[in-house]
User: Which sequence fits this backbone?
C-alpha cells in the first residue's frame, strides 16, 4: 500500500466512523477505497469489519448519556446481535459474494420508508398504549427476530445495517430517535466484534488496512457522536433517509 493509499484509507475510516455513529452505512465509504488499493472483495470486507470495531466503541462512548436506562433492552437485543453477527460472518466465509445482492437493496428501501414514517408509527404505538392495547415494552419477539436477522446481514456485509436497526426499533418502540440511535451503535459494535473474532482465526485480512481504518474510525466515531447528539429528531431523520438513499442508489448500481 502506497503512502497516498494509506492516507486515503485512514480518511475513509474516519469518515465511516463518523457516519456510522450518526446514521450507519459507513462501509460504503471504506469498502470502495479498500477495493481501489487492490484488495480482493472478501479480504476488503473482512479488513473493513475488523477496522470498524474501534469506531463502534467510540460511538457508544459518545452516546453514553442516551443509553442510560436501557440496560435491559441492550442486553436483550445484544443477545440476538451476537447470534446474528456470528451467523452472518460464517455466511461471508462460506457463501459466494453475490448471495445477498438482490435482497439488500430491498431491505434498505423498506428501512428508509420505515424511518421516514417513524413519527406516525410512534404516535400509533402511544395511542395503543393509552387505549390499553398490547404493546410490548421492548418490542416483543417480532422486534427481537427482526434485529437478529438484521445482525445476520450486518455480520455478512454491514452497509446500511444501522439504518435497518433504527427503522425496526422506530416501528415497534415508543422512544426518541436519539435513544434508538444509541442502541443501534451498541448492536453494531456487538456484531462487528463477534465477526472480528471469527475473522481473526478463519479469514484473510490486511493488517495495514485494519490498523488505518481502526485509527480513523475511532476518531470519527467520537466526532460523529458528539455532533449527532445535537441534531433534532427531524434533522437526524432527514440525514438518515438521505444517506440511506445514497446507499440504496450505490447498491442498485454497483
Assistant:
Amino acid at each position: 500500500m502506497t503512502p497516498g493509499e494509506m492516507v486515503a484509507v485512514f480518511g475513509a475510516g474516519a469518515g465511516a466512523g463518523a457516519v456510522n455513529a450518526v446514521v450507519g452505512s459507513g462501509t460504503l465509504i471504506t469498502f470502495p477505497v479498500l477495493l481501489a488499493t487492490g484488495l480482493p472483495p472478501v479480504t476488503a470486507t473482512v479488513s473493513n469489519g475488523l477496522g470498524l470495531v474501534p469506531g463502534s466503541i467510540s460511538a457508544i462512548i459518545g452516546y453514553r448519556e442516551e443509553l442510560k436506562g436501557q440496560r435491559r433492552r441492550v442486553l436483550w437485543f445484544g443477545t440476538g446481535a451476537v447470534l446474528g453477527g456470528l451467523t452472518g460472518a460464517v455466511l461471508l466465509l462460506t457463501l459466494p459474494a453475490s448471495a445477498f445482492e438482490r435482497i439488500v437493496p430491498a431491505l434498505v428501501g423498506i428501512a428508509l420508508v420505515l424511518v421516514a414514517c417513524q413519527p406516525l408509527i410512534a404516535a400509533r404505538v402511544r395511542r395503543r398504549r393509552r387505549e390499553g392495547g398490547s404493546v410490548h415494552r421492548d418490542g416483543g419477539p417480532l422486534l427481537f427476530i427482526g434485529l437478529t436477522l438484521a445482525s445476520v446481514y450486518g455480520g455478512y456485509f454491514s452497509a446500511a445495517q444501522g439504518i435497518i436497526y433504527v427503522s425496526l426499533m422506530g416501528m415497534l418502540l415508543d422512544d426518541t430517535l436519539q435513544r434508538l440511535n444509541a442502541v443501534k451503535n451498541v448492536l453494531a459494535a456487538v456484531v462487528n466484534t463477534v465477526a472480528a473474532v471469527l475473522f481473526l482465526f478463519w479469514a484473510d485480512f490486511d493488517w495495514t488496512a485494519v490498523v488505518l481504518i481502526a485509527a480513523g474510525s475511532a476518531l470519527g466515531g467520537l466526532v460523529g457522536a458528539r455532533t449527532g447528539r445535537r441534531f433534532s429528531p427531524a434533522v437526524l431523520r432527514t440525514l438518515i433517509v438521505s444517506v440511506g438513499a445514497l446507499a440504496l442508489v450505490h447498491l442498485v448500481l454497483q
Remarks:
- The two ends are 24 Å apart (CA to CA).
- The chain has a mean pLDDT of 82.
- The CA atoms of residues 151 and 241 lie 20 Å apart.
- The chain has one domain: 3-253.
